[in-house]
Specification:
Largest sheet of chain A: 2 strands, antiparallel
Largest sheet of chain B: none
Shape of chain A: globular
CATH class of chain B: Mainly Alpha
Distance between the termini of chain A: 33 Å
Number of helices of chain A: 22
Number of helices of chain B: 3
Largest interface: A-B, 28 and 30 residues
Helix content of chain B: 55-70%
Number of strands of chain B: 0
Radius of gyration of chain A: 23 Å
Number of domains of chain B: 1
Distance between the termini of chain B: 45 Å
Strand content of chain B: under 5%
Order of helices and strands of chain B: HHH
Order of helices and strands of chain A: HHHEEHHHHHHHHHHHHHHHHHHH
Oligomer: heterodimer
CATH architecture of chain B: Orthogonal Bundle
Structural class of chain A: mainly alpha
Helix content of chain A: over 70%
Shape of chain B: elongated
């Protein structure tokens, strides 16, 4: 048992990798078997990630475990690093994955080949990116994640997906080149790729190499900002996410957060670098521009998936602006917001398809056919497709309203709590010389973006729910409404347990910044 | 040697960026390939340029005469990943050509 606890940090990578390999070997004809393997691997991952949460929950939050791959001595080994932040992110990934695979079990897992394999490989890439302590290893996990996401984006095929995929792949390949350039520049100056080692060597970098190092870090930053979809380099996101199949889009909700996560790690590392707040203005103003762009996008988009895509931009922008403060209290509430907004956005992506299902173009044709041929078969059909939940529309409507309140940050749900804590933290952060003008602008933007999100979602809700029903209630399976209940339940749980959750996050953030100072 | 390397990186990257901004999907993929060649050469050069220096350790030789093996390992990984990604992009490109009947990156002629 102790042996397993010692190797806990690598399990979130090994479990999906093994599952992915096994799934590759099984023929597509055995769809049920593949699905079963996928679900069991995801459940196992959930158990592992809860163990990680529990393990790093002990102590005061500064517990960091370095796992040396192959047990090589420290400067040579490629390391994995587990701490509270990575434990939180891995747990978020596994909850999200469980919901998505449950949703896909209804029908999407048959929508094309290798869905299950790509799903597990995406989880491997995500977990690897959250756990690695090595800059080049991070690149490799990024590529694993991206390669799987290219496949998942194209899952289900069709014109819109292929076109969005083409743009998405071209953009990410170019961003990966920037990533590589940045990594190699950092290596050229510091002579190491280990993140902790880089932080240790930063103060000793000679003055003539500093500009080279800063260029490298800036290139890395651009690559991650592109992933997090900051304003001038984030136009690809709404189109790509709106085109993806719903379970894939819901899982992609965390991919833009990977960029934010790595930027958080890098900015903590750079705490050791003499220059006060390297690139922080970029994060602040870029984040604010992203919020504005996302808000305008939400108000202007007609269909729900696209609107949620712009919601991702607002959430990314908010997080980027929060990172720029480099303050433990702000970071703690930002991570809390990250968890809530990721779950809500995933939920909305799933809901959007269920709502569209009632209005599918085939529905009209079906209605005409039924009029002509009678509707005796209708009852049987429903039995075949699945268990219809009574008052389906009411359930969907309530879930939609809850999601809208969470995303917009309306009281009484945890979205409000997250936004309120972030505002309180940014106003409280610069006590020295009063609250700066940019902070007030940021607070105003947060309120306005919340209001616009509410407005946009309200409009969609009215169009979907308050129309005279044509009689065809969308057929929704329990496994499809289950993940929505799971995500909303998690958000409510985070509201009820807000005090312990925030204590966990605050200790985590203090541990992070203490690490860079010490 | 420094001049040749920097010139080739510059020419490759420049042509790559120009092609990347072109409207035809084939031009884009060639542009991305050229950029990845430029990046690979760049990574290679971060180990400092040396001739006649092996990255393999032998007993009794001065450590200063070795080439840095890490960038070579990195460049190898980058080549493999870049190759796989180019192949994948090529498939998507062909799918797009087949579905839309045009090789414009937006799937329709302007």
């Amino acid at each position: 048992m102790t042996a397993i606890v010692d190797h806990l940090v690598i399990l979130p990578i090994v479990v999906p990798m093994l599952a992915g390999v096994i799934l590759t070997l099984i023929n597509e004809r055995h769809a049920a078997t593949k699905l079963a393997i996928n679900i069991s691997a995801t459940l196992l991952l959930l158990v592992v990630s809860l163990l990680l949460l529990w393990k790093f929950g002990a102590g005061d939050g500064s517990l960091t475990e370095v796992y040396r791959l192959g047990n090589w001595p420290v400067p040579v080994a490629i390391t994995l690093v587990g701490d509270r932040l990575s434990a939180v992110m891995v747990a978020l990934v596994s909850f999200l994955a469980l919901g998505c695979i449950s949703y896909a079990a209804a029908r999407w897992h048959r929508g094309g080949s290798h869905f299950n394999t790509l799903f597990q490989l995406l989880l491997m890439g995500l977990n690897g990116a959250f756990l690695t302590g090595d800059l080049f290893n991070l690149f490799v996990f990024f590529e694993v994640m991206l390669a799987a996401s290219y496949g998942l984006l194209l899952h289900g095929s069709g014109n819109a997906r292929v076109r969005a995929g083409l743009h998405y792949i071209a953009f990410n390949l170019a961003a990966s080149s920037l990533f590589l350039l940045g990594v190699s520049l950092v290596y050229a100056v510091t002579g190491t790729l280990n993140m902790a080692d880089i932080a240790a060597r930063l103060p000793t970098v000679p003055a003539e190499s500093r500009s080279l190092l800063e260029a490298g870090l800036a290139l890395l930053g651009i690559a991650f900002l592109g992933k997090a979809a900051m304003w001038p380099i984030g136009f690809w996101l709404p189109t790509a996410y709106a085109a993806a199949s719903p379970p894939a889009a819901a899982l992609f909700a965390i991919m833009s957060k990977v960029g934010v996560y790595v930027l958080l790690r890098l900015s903590v590392l750079l705490g050791a670098y003499g220059a006060e707040g390297f690139g922080h203005e970029w994060l602040l103003y870029g984040g604010m521009a992203t919020i504005v762009f996302g808000t305008v996008g939400i108000l202007s988009s007609q269909d729900l998936p696209r609107m949620v895509g712009f919601g991702v931009l607002v959430s990314s922008g908010t997080l980027l602006a929060m990172l720029s403060y480099g303050d433990p209290a702000v970071t703690a509430s930002a991570v809390y917001y990250l968890v809530i907004s990721t779950l809500t956005i995933a939920c909305l992506f799933l809901l959007s398809e269920l709502l569209e299902r009632g209005r599918a173009p085939e529905a009209d044709i079906l209605a005409v056919t039924l009029e002509a041929f009678g509707d005796e078969q209708e009852v049987e059909r429903e039995q075949e497709v699945g268990i219809t939940i009574p008052a389906t529309m009411a359930t969907l409507g309530i879930s939609f309203a809850l999601c809208a309140m969470l995303l917009a940050g309306m009281p009484p749900l945890s979205g409000f709590l997250a936004k309120f804590m972030m505002m309180a933290a940014v106003i409280g952060s610069d006590t020295g010389a009063g609250v700066g003008a940019s902070t007030w602008v940021l607070v105003a933007l947060l309120i306005v973006s919340g209001f616009a999100t509410m407005l946009g979602l309200l409009r969609t809700g009215i169009n979907r729910f308050w129309v005279p029903s044509a009689g065809d209630v969308p057929l929704v399976r329990v496994v499809e409404i289950g993940p929505i209940a799971l995500f909303l339940g998690l958000c409510v749980a985070l509201l009820v347990l807000a005090a312990p959750a925030m204590a966990y996050m605050e200790n985590m953030a203090e541990g992070l910044y203490a690490l860079s100072a010490g | 040697m420094e001049l040749v390397i920097s010139l080739s990186i510059g020419v490759l990257a420049g042509s790559g960026i120009w092609l990347l901004l072109r409207p035809r999907s084939f031009q884009v993929i060639i542009g991305l390939s050229l950029i990845s060649y430029a990046v690979n050469l760049f990574i290679f050069s971060t180990g400092r340029l040396k001739s006649d220096a092996a990255p393999i350790l032998e007993t009794g030789r001065d450590i200063a005469t070795y080439a840095d093996p890490v960038p070579q390992a990195l460049v190898l990984t980058a080549i493999v990943i870049g190759f796989a990604m180019t192949a994948l992009f090529l498939v998507v490109l062909l799918a797009s050509r087949g579905l839309t009947g045009t090789d414009h990156v937006d799937g329709r002629e302007r």
